[in-house]
Write the structure tokens for this entry.
Amino acid sequence: MRILHHFHTIIGLLFLSLITSCRPSDKITEFSDGISIETDSAKLDVRYLTNKIVHVTYRPLDSQGETLPLMIEKRTDDSTKVLISHEKGFLVLDGGETKVRINLENRQISFYDPEEKLLLSENYRHLSKISVPGDSGYTVRQNFTWKPEEALFGLGQQQGGIMNWRGKSVELFQQNMNIAVPSIVSSEGYGLLWNNYSLTRFNDTSEGSYFQSELADQIDYYFVDGPRTDNIIAGFRYITGDVPMIPRWAFGYIQSKERYKTQDELISVAREFRKRKIPFDCIVLDWRYWTGEQWGQKSFDSTRFPNPSGMMKTLHEDLDVHLMISVWPKLSKITKDYDEMIKISGAFYNDTAQQSIYDAFNPEARILFWEQANNGLFSKGIDAWWCDATEPELVGWTWNADNYKTLMKPAIGSGSRYMNGYSLMQSKGMYENQRKVTNDKRVFILTRSAFPGIQKYGASAWSGDIDGNWSVFKKQIPAGLNFCMSGIPYWTTDIGGFFVLGIENFTIDRVDQRFIKDEKYKELYVRWFQYAAFCPLFRAHGTDFPREIWRFGEPGSWAYDALVSADKLRYKLMPYIYSNAWKITHQNSTLMRALVFDFPGDSAVYNIPDQFMFGESILVNPVTDSLAITRKMYLPKAEWFDLWSGVKLQGSQWITADAPISRIPIFVKAGSIIPVSLDLQSADEISDKPVTIWIYPGADANFELYEDSGDGYNYENGQYSIIPMSWDDSEKKLILGAIQGDFPGIAKARTFNVVIAGSGKSFGMSNNQNDKVIEYNGETSSVAID
């Protein structure tokens, strides 16, 4: 039984409760950024990071431990000045935006917006002394009072199919298919980030509404005032780190399977994509590229991969394809990498007879792990890292928290204290050390586990080794939306599921190396693929049989044509996607957006788990039922254009949309500008292709077309360009502003085709005609369009 199940029955432990009145001995200290109240047993600190972010800690005076702030960025905003006043029975803190009231009788805190609207109230605090293997401290719980109709989102990636966490309970610790991120976003316009790496539970049931962690030195959380969800996410990233640009090619289609066994096989698959003119950017090399049973060795088997540098030259120069490779925290004891790593004191834990897990919390071990990856892989031309099993996947265990606490013995403390932070430190090592080697290649990491702050290391996540069936597919949509609402923007799934289970009559015997015969699995795969084309990252992966597009049929067959169509639609949207990636980096935006991002006042969207916005303009509605040719869906308050017909519909209504197997329902919001490229075979071709500017009228619109070299970090030094675009709906006028910025290879003179969407015209169709053609030379251009 997990230790959190014992929290209510811990006997003989010290209980601290804030229910007493302020006494003369209490010490109140005022600061420019907040206040502290010290009693004879504990200290409460309330400090403003900014005028909308408040850091709250409550620490027993006899607390001896210290949890390192691994996810926290050390930032200060000297412009924030807090006014402190005294009301009857309360201290009032005003940071200029968010206001805080501290009840002097019980020291509970309430948070208010500038208009004095109550956003959130604390309830009681509870701390109990606890001893665990190799550590001691406090079990901490902070209760909160939510409003009756309030909805709560976030908490990372969970597999229960839950969108709104009200009335629910979840245990947060890293597992293969569950990612623990202790942050929530409220429909009331605020967020909470719970600052703890240990086994944690979020609870909102009849037993109480709280965050509770097994081991800590103090109650520690950040309150972030919005009111927009984008503002809240920006606050989370201010606390834990900003998002760097990942390479442009990473937004293209990524082909993976378990596994490509030889250099020749891998290159032949890449050639087949190019031969068939199927857009494609990356191929993935999964495990066992090493020799024999040398699990985790970061070098190639010379028999099956005789010329890694030549392989990469062929991929890069001949085929315009990138390679992602898997690296593992577990090392076989028969590897050279193990022999080097064992020389570092404390480099391993979970040391078994066959394999050991390297300690990513150990700075020296992180450096050596990178050096091995660099010498054996990155120096050969590898482009990206698949950091698999970063929970970490311990050897010789069952998946429960007690095993993690006893088997993990990180250099910086106990497994109990830091069990959820492993992937954060693994990503830190890969990012920081690659950047020391070169700034010409952006760090791009795919990791199976994640934690707040991982976004600053170029890391993305996927939903683990999920089963391939309709029930699991449905659950991926809210899992991904809540993950992105936790502040980490890049996420994906194994299209079609890693394992194929639950599809009636589907067996591996019905698959050969040429194509998949099972019609029911084809349908699932097509629907999943259509959804994944609108995930932040677009990636196929699975075990047992090939997943390349031509395995599902040949041109002219329904499955092949539907898959290629969805792939090409993704590439059409590349200018829109890459410009939104810049908004993630520059404005702390989010690409895959739960409906509450853009329709916060519409309570109908709070419990919709299977619709979302892709950027701020495109409404995506996956089909998750077998044999469906329509789907019921909600159009939020706005005017909407059907992507496939151009027909305009009014929002604030439920509709039944057509959903033939060739497509899923997609709608574009009136008042949108969507830049589109045609005929791309890879994402980097975007730089020299004409762009079609699709205008969806009915409201004014703005868009910033972002461009840079597509890789490297010169954008950090201002080497990029932005072309501002605006649509004046009343005047029917498109204005292209003067180009801002510069970078090597920029195309200042270019052709923009302009099309006004309407019935029979939309970029989802193929028979459109341009309304205007603009030869743009980098200067302001204004065009009236009848």
